[in-house]
Amino acid sequence: MESNKKYWKGLEELNNTPEFVELNKHEFAEPIPIEDVLSGTGLTGKTPRRNFLKTLGFGLGAVSLAACQKTPVHKSIPYLIKPEEVTPGVANFYVSSYNGQSILVKTREGRPIKIEGNPGDVLGQGGVNAQTQASLLELYNANRLKGPMQDGGETAWSALDTYVKNELAAIKASGKQIRIVSSTINSPSSLRVINDFVAQYPTTKLVNYDPISLTGIIQANQNSFGKAVLPRYSFDKADVIVSFGADFLGPWISQAEHMRQYVSKRSHKALEGKKMSRHIQFESRMSLTGSNADTRIPLKPSEEGIALINLYNAISGTSLPGSKKLSNAATDNAVTLAAKELVAAKGRALVVAGSNDVAIQVLVNAINSLLGSYGTTIDLDNPSYQYKGNDAEMVALLNEMKSGQVGAVFFLNANPVYNYYQSSAFADALKKVGLRVSFADYADETASQCNVIATNSHFLESWGDENSVEGYYTIVQPTINPVYDSRKAEQSLLVWSNAPVKDYYTYVRNTWNTNILPQAGLAGQNGWETLLQTGFVKTTAKPAGTYTFSRDLNAVAQTILSQSAKIAAPQGKLELQVFESNTVLDGRYANNPWLQELPDPISKVTWDNYVAIAPKTAKDLKLEEGDVVKVTANNYTTELPLLLQPGQAQGTISIALGYGRTKSGKVGDEVGKNAFPFLAFANGTFQGNTVATLEGVGGDKVVLAQTQTHHSYEGRDVIRETTLQQYLKKSEEKGEKEGGEKETYSLWDEYDRPQYDWVMAIDLNACTGCGACVVACNVENNVPVVGRDEVRRRREMHWIRIDRYYSYDEKGHTVTEEKEIDKLENLDNVSVTYQPMLCQHCDHAPCETVCPVLATTHSSEGLNQMTYNRCVGTRYCANNCPYKVRRFNWFNYWNDSRFENYLQNDYTELVLNPDVTTRFRGVMEKCSMCVQRIQAGKLNAKLQKRPLADGEIKVACQQTCPTNAIIFGNAKDPNSEVSKALKSERTYYVLEELNVKPGIGYQAKVRNREAATTEA
C-alpha cells in the first residue's frame, strides 16, 4: 500500500521558498545564546514566579486552602487527622458533567488535575474533545473574581442580596420587564429555578442566546414538521453522507459524539467487514470535516443554496424555480452524481447543511424526507438540547432595552457585549437598564458593563445537572470546595426569589428524586448514591418516528435565491464567511493557554486568527502570505494577516470567530481580531456569509505562529493512502503474494522483552486531526506553553503533534511529480491526511547511540526513556532523530512570566501532575508513553496478585481520543488489541527503511472514492 503521491505540509515546502530552504538546512532555528548566558545578560528564566500574579495569573494560592478547608490544618504534621477519602499518592475519581457529557475528574490530595471521559457516556463513550480537557484550567485562573462585586467594588453577599431584592421589588411594582440572557440551558434543575424566579417576578423571560446559532435548523423543523427541535443525527447509520458546509467533525452541535459515530463506519473494524461509508463535502473554506471527506468540492457560499436546489431537483425529478448551472461545471456534475449516490442509499443516507438560514434548512428537510432519513439517520423524537438559542428573541431584547422597557437584565454564561453582531449597539442599550447583573466568574466584556457581578462558581466547585439529549441525564458533582467566595448562579436566583429551598445541592437532589430517578427505576436513597457513582441515567428512548415533508417549496426556493443574490460578490469584491474557531470556539476559551497554543487542525496557526484565501485569488489580487489586509463588510472594518489556504473556494475568504477579546484576561486579550461584527441578521437568524472588500495596507509582513513546517521529511514515504476499491482488490490478491519478504540485517543487538513490550497502533482512518490528544498529553505530562513568539522560533513543546499533509488530485488523476504540481493553476482539489506523530520508541533508537551522557536509554519493556538530570543539552539526540519528536527546553517556561503559560506562581505544584517530573532549562524531553500510568497499572495488578489485563493501562492520548484511533498495549500478548491491530494488512511503519524498528505502527488511510465523482 505504498503511495507515490507527492505530499507537502505547507505552501512554503511545496514552492521550496528560499526561507524554507534556509531554515530547513539547520536542525534548530536558532543557536543557543551561550555567550549571553555566560555573560549574565541572556534570558535565565529566573524571573520571580510571584510576579506572574501581576501578569497572566492562573493563580492557585486559594486552591490549597479550598481543597482541605473543611479539615483541621496541622502545619507541622499534615494529616494527623486524615480525611477518610484522601490517601496521599493515590488518586480519587469523581463523576461530573461538562457540556452535557459525563466525565471523570481525577483529583490528587483534594485538587482536580485531569479530566477523562466517562466510559459509559452516551455522547463520547469515554472520549472527550480538547475543550473539555482544557476546561480544568479555568478553575485555577487568577483572573477569577474573589467575591461578589457592586458598582466596581467588592461587597458582601448579604449586602448584595439586599440590594438586588430591593431593586427587583421596585421593578415588579413598576411593571417593567425582567430578562435572563443565557447560553443554552438544558439543566432540569436550572430550568426549575428559573421557573420559580418567574413565579415570583412574572414579567421575567428567559432568552436563550447562542453566539454560534443553530436557530435556522430548529425553526426549519418547526416549519416543516411542527417540532421546534434540534435533531439527533446518526452518522453511524448513514452509508452516504453529503454535507453542505456543516463542520460536524468540528464544533458543530456535538463533536465527540459525531466523530465517534462517523469513524465507526470507517475505522479498522468497518474495513474488516469490507464496507465503508461514503462522505461528500461541499464547502467554501477547508474545514476539519471537509479535510476528512472522501470527496471534497469547493463551493462559494452564494452557490450553496443553488446547489441544494439542484440536488433536490435531481433526487425528486421535479424542477424548483431557481435551478441553474453553477459557476463551475465540475461542481454541477458532482451535485448530479451525489444525488445518484444518495438515491441508491435511500434509508441509509444523510444530508446536512451548516447554514443558519431557515429556508436552506427547510430544503434540506425536504431532501432528507425524499431519502427516507427520518427515523433512521435523523431522529426528531429524541432530539438534542445542546443548542436552544432564539436569534429573533435576542434582537427583540435589544429593541426592548433601547425603548426603556427592561428594568433588569441577568447574564448567565452569556457575553453579548463581545459576541453580539451589533455589540456596540447592545452596550449602548444596556446602559438604559437600571439593574444589570452578571453571573460571570471574571469581569468579561459584558460583566464590566454591569453594576452587579454575582460571582459564579466553576463547574468543578458546584452541584448541577444536564440533559443534553432526550432521555439522557448527567450529574454535575463538585470535586473541590469553592476556591474563592463565589456562589452558584442558581443559588443566587433562589435567594432573590425567596424560595423555600435556598441550598442548591438540596434543590438538585429534590429534582432528581422527584422527576428523574423514578423514570430510570432508581428511586430512593440507593438511587442517589448509584447516580454519584455512575454519573448519569438513561430513560427509555422514544420510538424514532418517520416524517414526510409536504410543504410547498416554491416560496422557499425564491427566498434562497434572494439571499444568495445578496451574498454573491460583484466584480472587485469577495465573499466572506466567518466560522467558529476549532480551538477557542466562540471566544469563551480565549484565555486558556492550552487551547491558544493548540494548532488549528487545517492551518496549524496558533495564537491568532487570519484571513484565509485561495492562493490563486491572492495572486490575482497581487497579495502574498503574511500581508496585512483590511477587510470591510457590514459597516465594519478590521485588519488581519493573510494566509494562503489550499482548498479555499476561489473568490472567497474566511475568518475565524472567537478572537479579539478585550476583557478575557492576560492570555486572551488582544489576540487576533473580533469577527463577530461581520455577522448579519437576515431572514430571522444570525448568518455568517456576506460580501466584503479586501485591500492590502502595506508595511511589514506578519509571521504567523505556525507549527506545521517546523520539520521536513524531505519527500520520504511517511504517508500511505489508498482507495476502498484498491484496498479490496489488494486484499483479494494478498494470498498470492505472501511469503516473499526479504530478510533484513542489523548491526544492533536484539534484546528479549521478558514480560512486556509496550507498543502502539494508530489508525489514520480513525484520526480526524481534532487535537484532543495534544491537550490531553499537555495536561497529563505537565507540558509547558511557550507562547506566540517561541512558536515562531520553532520552539513549541508538544510531545505529540498532528501532522497535516496535502496531496493533489486533478480529475481523478493523482499528481505525483513536482513538475506536474508546478503547472497547476490552482490548489482547489487538495486532499488532506492527518498523522499523529510522537516518539516512536524505536528498538534501534538512533538517539540513544549519540547521547554522550546516557541520558536517553532503552528499557527492558521497549520504552525509550529520558533521565532528565543526566541530560546536559547537547541536542545530539534531536539531531539524530528522523521523526523530529524531541523537544528542547530553551527556558524555564514553567516559571518564567514572559511566557503565555499557566504554571508560573508560588503554587505551581497544585496544577501539575505529581507523578510526572517537571523539566528544567537545557534538557531534552519527549513522549514517555505515559510511563507513570504503566507503572501504576503494573503496581495495581501486583497488589491484587493478578496478571495485568489488556486495556487496563491507557495512555493519555489514547484515553481521550473520541474515535479510538490510538491503541496501546503489550505486544508480548498475542491476543491484545494492539497486537491484533498491528497484524492488519494496512499496517506500516514510518521510515521503516531506516531499520530503527519503531514501536508505533500506522494503519494506512483509505478513502471511499467512486471514480465518477472523483472525476467530477
Largest sheet: 7 strands, mixed
What portion of residues is helical? 25-40%
Distance between the termini: 25 Å
The count of helical stretches stands at 33
- Which percent range describes the beta-strand content? 15-25%
Give the strand tally.
Answer: 42
Nearest-integer average pLDDT: 86
Structural class: alpha/beta
Compact overview of the structure:
The chain has 1016 residues and is of the alpha/beta class. 28% of the residues lie in helices and 19% in strands.
What distinguishing features does this structure have?
1016 residues; alpha/beta; seven-stranded mixed β-sheet; six-stranded mixed beta barrel; 33 helices; 42 strands; 19% strand; globular; disordered C terminus
What do these coordinates show?
It is built from 33 helices and 42 strands. The protein is α/β, with parallel strands linked by helices and 1016 residues long. The chain has a 7-stranded mixed β-sheet, sandwiched between helices. A 6-stranded mixed barrel has the order 20-25-22-24-23-28. Strands 11-10-9-12 form a 4-stranded parallel β-sheet.
Explain the layout of strands and helices:
Elements lengths: L10 H4 L3 H8 L8 H6 L23 H5 L24 E7 L2 E8 L2 E7 L12 H5 L14 E2 L2 E2 L2 H18 L2 E6 L5 H13 L3 E5 L6 H11 L4 E4 L6 E5 L10 H10 L3 H5 L5 E6 L4 H5 L2 E4 L2 H16 L12 H16 L4 E5 L4 H13 L7 E7 L6 H12 L3 E7 L3 H4 L3 H8 L4 E4 L13 E2 L10 E6 L2 E5 L12 H8 L7 H13 L8 H10 L1 E3 L15 H14 L6 E7 L12 H4 L8 E2 L4 E3 L1 H6 L7 E6 L2 E9 L7 E6 L22 E3 L2 E3 L1 E8 L8 E2 L14 E3 H14 L20 E6 L8 H10 L6 H5 L8 E10 L2 E2 L3 H5 L7 E8 L8 H5 L5 E3 L5 E3 L9 H5 L6 E2 L35 E2 L5 H13 L12 H5 L5 E5 L6 H6 L4 E2 L11 E4 L1 E3 L3 H5 L1
Parallel strand pairs: 6-7, 6-14, 9-10, 9-12, 10-11, 14-15, 15-16, 20-25, 22-24, 30-42, 31-41
Antiparallel strand pairs: 1-2, 2-3, 4-5, 4-16, 8-13, 17-18, 18-19, 20-28, 21-29, 22-25, 23-24, 23-28, 26-27, 31-39, 32-33, 32-34, 35-36, 37-38, 40-41
